[in-house]
Amino acid sequence: MKDLYEKYSIYLTRQNFEIFSVMMIVIFALIVFTSSIPSQGVLTLDNKTIKYDGNIVRGKMNGQGTLTFKNGDVYKGSFKNGSFNGKGTFTAKAGWKYEGDFVNGQPEGQGVLTTEGKAVYKGKFKQGIYQNAH
Predict the structure, then answer these.
(1) In the chain, which ranges are E strands?
(2) Do 45 and 97 lie in a common domain?
(3) How many whole angstroms separate alpha carbon 101 and alpha carbon 125?
(4) Are strands 120-126 and 50-57 parallel, antiparallel or unpaired?
(5) Residues 97 and 82 in one domain
(6) CA-based Rg of the chain, rounded to a whole angstrom?
(7) What is the CATH number of the domain that holds 43?
(8) Whether residue 22 is found in the same domain as residue 83
(9) What is the helix (H) or strand (E) element at residue 28, kind and residue range?
């Protein structure tokens, strides 16, 4: 070990350490920056019962995409950190559909809910609940 130290100790200078440190900071900054760039991809979740096709950032659904559930339900629209967020359309296999704003996976804001019987509820939703009922 002493021989190894004596052989390479000439390289252990403050200047070399500073150069090495700056290089490591640049490398890690590039890794952080490139991991934030959206990419197109497909994710399968919950033992392949849910399929996502769309933008992925850091392994999560982010941006525009389509989420298809095993039972036939489909959500198409905006995602943020893996949840429905922004404008989108959720179409249930049972026949109902919600088009409008989503926040954290729930209808929130302006939207239109069309039931299986074709009744239409248009207006404001809060935490998934229609707010214009009289």
Answers:
(1) 39-45, 50-57, 60-69, 74-80, 83-91, 97-103, 106-114, 120-126, 129-130
(2) yes
(3) 9
(4) unpaired
(5) yes
(6) 25
(7) 2.20.110.10
(8) no
(9) helix 14-35
Residue 106, both tokens: 């729930």
Q: Which domain holds residue 58?
A: 39-130
Give the model's pLDDT for residue 106. Answer: 94
- Tokens for 123? 């207006």
68 CA to centre of own chain:
15
* Alpha-carbon span 38 to 56, nearest angstrom: 5
- Indicate the SS3 state at residue 6: helix
Is this structure's pTM higher than 0.90?
no
Mean pLDDT by 10 residues, the chain (134 residues): 82 88 92 79 92 92 95 96 95 96 95 94 92 70
